[in-house]
Amino acid sequence: MKKLNKRHIIDIGSLILRTLFFLVFIAPLLWLVVSSFKQEMNIFKDMGSLSAFIPKDLFLGNYTKAFQRADLIKYVMNSMFYVFLITLFGMIVNSLCGYGLAKLKVPYSKQILKFIIALIIIPFETIILPLFLIVNNFGWVNSFQALIVPFIANCFNIYLFKQFFSGIPDEFLEAARVDGASDLRTFLQIVLPQSTTVFATVFILTFVAHWGDFMWPLIVASDDSVRTIQVGLQFLFTNPPQLYGVILAGLTFSTIPLAIIFLMFQKYYVQSAASSGLKG
Amino acid sequence: MLRWLKKIIVMVCVLSLLVSLLGCAKEEKTGTTETTEGKSTSSSSEEEVILTVWLPSNNESENKVMSEIMDAYNELNVGKVVVEYQFVPRANAFAYEDKISAAVTINQLPDVLMMDGPNVSNYAYSEIIKPITEFFTEDELDDFVASMLSQGTYNGELYALSPSESSVVIYYNKDIIDAAGIEVPMKLEDAWTFDEFMEIVKTVHKDGEVYGVNIAPDYGTGEWMTYMPTLFLWSFGGNIISEDGMTAEGYINSSASVEAMEYFQSLSNYSNWQATPTEFEEGRAAFKICGSWLVPGFEANPDLNWGITYLPYEKTHVAPSGDWAWGVSSTKHAKESADFLKYMLNAENIENFTTIAAKPPTRKSLLNASELWASYPRSIIKDQVINSGHPRPKTPAYPVVTQEFASAAVDLFLGADVKERLDLAASNIDENLQRYFK
Amino acid sequence: MIHKIQHRFHIAKYQKSLLGIMFVLPAICLLFTFLILPAIMAGKYSFYNYSILKPENMNFIGLTNYTDVLQSKAFWKTMTNTFYFVVVVVPFQSSLALLMAILINKKSRITNVFRIGFFSPVITSIVVISILWTFMYAKEGLINNFLSIFGIPNQPFLTSEKQAMNSIIFMSAWQASGYFMMIFLAGLKEIPETLYEAAAIDGANKFKQFIHVTVPGLRNVIKFVVVVTTIHAFKLFQQPFIMTGGGPNGSTQTVVQMIYKEGFQYRNAGYSSTIAILFFIVIAAVSTLIQKLIKDRSY
Lengths: 280, 438, 299
What we know:
heterotrimer, A: MetI-like fold, C: mainly alpha, two-stranded antiparallel ribbon
């Protein structure tokens, strides 16, 4: 009896904790969406109290103005296109590399891995200029190539893949090999289906990371035909005076694709738990 | 439900892919959307010159009138010149300037470009823009206000001119000021001294209810904290940098500069550094020190009972000025660029642009002839533009100077020791000047 | 005969590694072109006086940039600030992320909702988050109003030298923990349920299960998250850039911010590259050290 009580208390405690966390974490998204429907004055009048998070009026003026100022739909399409391709090609290239380093015979694989990890630390801001010169040499300025190709290979993702593939027991792959499967077939038919969580993780994280790109697209792709949403949004920050309602409306709109991508892919977390028979 | 969503997303992805591919294919034929019209009308002529032009993107009405003016130029010059223009976002930091820097490294600057006024010296020093003095006669130049000519001049040559000017003014909340029985100056010679202004700020400030003055804080991230605090510096007889733009020591930390910034610091007792953008509009600040660009927005706000007045002064009347200006790069098409520049700055086009943008025009003839600018509240802005406008310092190291001064100004407003902080700014600026410009 | 077998064996071995190389090569090529090559170019610039606006004036100046940077007070200040940020944020953020992952590592509809909530700051633009927190941290902002209920006086969260960096640390940990929660969660999914059941049968309570099952099971992931969080933390840039501009008194100025400022705003690509190279060396040393430390402790 006493034991049961204790477990109840723990469960309730964890539920309360989770709910508290939830509220604190959801707050900015809530603020963003709620404020984008408020009149400019109300956004800041409410800032000092909880009414900042409570919808007051359903003012659509911010949205009409935002769409008037910039062709947001087109820019979102452009962004979806290039970020999706980075992610897609990235998953192929990086997972192959991670698998090669984890499970195949690659000369100096330990050194290569160390080197790749060391490369993670290069802050992008420090190589913008030389990278720009290279991309210009390729004749890619104002094209989608400039937005996509430099970001396909990603050290962080290679490491992530490598870590997860290393967790797959060798005997498991050995069995497939004995059955006569080639390395590529083993990878495609045995390893891939076991790795939905990693792929979902990489997909979400890569998508999120590149959706927010600003400096690079601004410099290499300012033409209207390849303009991305983050650059397009800057047309709302017309200075001065800045209308925060309009800015927040644009930002809300630009968050929708991310939210959908996340909702779609987080499903795989549940699925893979069911299928997972592997040891970590 | 989620399955449906997924299907839709897949469709959208495929569609967007197709659309983008089609878009690319189409684009190869006709050029970018913004320039289609100009290009398609005149592809037959072989001698036609293509001028590329960059300008900052402002609000939609300003962008529209600028486009119309340039489209009209293309129509006037069918078969001779095609202007391909691009609006570049300024963002809230220095995105436009970063883009120019990047273009310089690969030799792809546009033929004609707009730049923020204080950057003129930096670009002129780096020889990425060319003098435009010879494009204009002396009489033509005489029509421009002194502050604008000064902003565009570097080493005795004119490099850039702007259609519009700006000024810093004092806005006040009429309800609060009237309730306190304060009379507001309506003529430049009646303007408050800084001491008088401080006394008034003190009387209207009510702790926790109404702030004495709002300084439109930008949290230390942009050009504003240089543009605005210079009004104190110059009026007290201080300066950021020497006349030749090469020494900060003894200028930014001179006794006059220190005195000016001490005054600036004392305003912080009656001001909120973390004010929300609408603090003044909500009636929670009696005064607001801000640029002339707020007037149209305030006029459109029926709930706000407001007025404007001249900046206070100490020794001289000074109002910070400056705006984005047209310049010409080291282009092959110097003649066409000059013609385009002169077209953009002719009286008619300046009038068209400044009317829509609600900014003071830089031509005195326009300012003086205009009824709009002759009547309150704009008359005060006009008065300051003509009589007390002062551009920001001219130095090849302007990017360094503005950052160092602005961050010092922020620190002072948050309570740093004035002399110490200005000494630090002086040594930072001089170190950079020493390394790169001497 | 023996010779022949050996030969065939050699070929097989050669083919095997050839296949491995084929797997690895595309990534390596891309990394070389778009990451290593630019980094080498930056390394070259660090020995030059190179102003972006005057590329034709580029001239070799040996180690001058290095001596200049190492003597610059601003450089050491940003270095100290960055180290402080890293040292505080890494343990704080990593344990927060792990706690969150454990809290929602259950299969049910409601945990899905929690997961979405915890991850939402990651998908919300950092610009929005920085603007929102700037106002929440304000003198009359939400947090101060909340604290005043308990009689705590107004705190100068972003406007005092002492608190500004801590405020940014708190906000950053809160914002990024959802990201690393996802990685922990992926790791937790790989720990077989049977291990927990076995531990429960042995009479281990939740805490003991955490110590004896979860932590060892996550060893690789924890190592990974700590290293990556450290590297991420070193790259801090956006939040102070938007919220404080590096102030007050330079207390939130970070190294990457200085690299950006010197390179793009002041247009001194040479000097900026020098800071980048020195910074690169420092992070490489630190992350190697961390990897060593974690390895030693977990065995």
